[in-house]
Amino acid sequence: MSKKGRKPRGQKPAWERGYNGHVYWLGKKKLGKVTVHTAKDARHKYTWEAAGRAGAGDDLEKARRAVEAAAAMADKQLDLFG
Predict the structure, then answer these.
(1) Strand pairing partners for 35?
(2) SS3 assignment for 10-74
(3) Nearest by Cα to 15 from 77, 53, 63, 51
(4) Sign of torsion, CA 18 69 71 38?
(5) What average pLDDT does the segment 34-43 reach?
(6) Which of 29, 26, 28, 16 is nearest to 64 (CA)?
(7) DSSP 8-state code for residue 82
(8) How far is residue 63's CA from residue 61's CA, in Å, rounded to a whole number?
(9) Is 63 exposed, middle or buried (0-12, 13-18, 19+ CB in 10 A)?
(10) pLDDT at residue 4 greater than cutoff 80
């Protein structure tokens, strides 16, 4: 019995922790970021930006999942004018 050849997989996006937040990278391409706000008068603790979308929240995991979802949808959605 012969082994089936595996298809080479592409790169996987990865989170990188920074000084004021986290950045979601695919190789050298930045897919999105989550920023931490330390000001006491800030409405939310975290804000996120990805694929032309933005949001805010108080939970880091929810903000990271929102960035991952926005980046995944942008990858699958067709360009309107291109």
Answers:
(1) 21, 47
(2) CCCCEEEECCCEEEEEECCEEEEEEEECCCCCCCCCEEEEECCEEEEECCHHHHHHHHHHHHHHH
(3) 63
(4) negative
(5) 92
(6) 16
(7) -
(8) 5
(9) buried
(10) no
Contact 74, 49 (CB under 8 A): no
- Asked if 33 and 21 touch (Cβ cutoff 8 Å), the reply is yes
Side-by-side strand order, sheet with 46-50: 14-17, 21-26, 29-36, 46-50, 53-57
- Say what the pLDDT of residue 57 is: 96
Q: Which residues contact 35 (CB under 8 A, 6 or more apart)?
A: 20, 21, 46, 47, 48, 49
Which tens digit of pLDDT belongs to each residue from 49-71?
A: 999 999 999 999 999 999 999 99
- Report the length, in residues, of the chain: 82
Six token digits for residue 41: 């008068």
